């Protein structure tokens, strides 16, 4: 008697429809994960930008407080050049906050004010550029002002950068080109980006300023005949 025949087994697998459904689900999951990573990345970038801006604002505020703490002159009118104490000047530009439309976030209305003064560092001296060299002085002429950051508004808002210009006050420089032939002046002009010196023009010559010289408004940073261009 022959043994009973064993039943045949058919290999199991996925149908084409099942594969398409699984692929679709996988693509949906991958898309959701990609969007989630994109959201996390964007949030992280925005958080880093906020932290960076906050750090810059704290550094700027600290620098301004440090500058103001060392103002060399009593903040009151009637200071004579003989006092040799420098100056403090706040230039209120023609634009005001009230010039901006109501509810506007545009900063252009009151961005033309300028703060200038002489300050003394109680600790480390101010450091400036002198050609390829570095120079130091305990006293500097400091200017705080704004310049437009972009040629076109960003999302309807005109952006500005806050600048700080530091010019060292050295009544006598003692090195070329000012010390040539024993003089404390020079003819021609200096590239201001390479020379952080407080200078005035006198009879066609460039002469380093003292605190007494800076008491006169026409000798100050970017002043010409008593105006601020």
Task: Give the key terms.
alpha+beta, 229 residues, 4-stranded antiparallel sheet, 3-stranded antiparallel sheet
Write up this protein.
A hairpin with a 2-residue loop joins strand 3 and strand 4. The model has no long low-confidence stretch (mean pLDDT 80). The chain starts with 15 loop residues before the first helix and ends in a 15-residue tail after the last helix. With 229 residues, the protein is of the alpha+beta class.
Could you write a compact summary of the structure shown?
The chain is α+β, with helices and mostly antiparallel strands and 229 residues long. The protein contains 2 helices and 9 strands, in the order αβββββββββα. Helix content is 25%, strand content 22%.
Write the layout of secondary structure elements.
Elements: H1 16-69, E1 88-91, E2 114-120, E3 126-130, E4 133-137, E5 139-148, E6 160-168, E7 186-187, E8 199-202, E9 205-208, H2 211-214
Antiparallel strand pairs: 1-2, 2-5, 3-4, 5-6, 7-9, 8-9
Shape: elongated
Number of β-strand runs: 9
Average of per-residue pLDDT values? 80
Distance from N terminus to C terminus (CA atoms, Å) equals 120 Å
State the share of residues found in helices, binned by percent.
25-40%
Instruction: Classify the beta-strand content into a percent band.
Output: 15-25%
Q: Order of helices and strands, N to C? A: HEEEEEEEEEH
Spatial extent as radius of gyration: 33 Å
> Which spans of ≥5 residues are poorly predicted at pLDDT below 50?
none
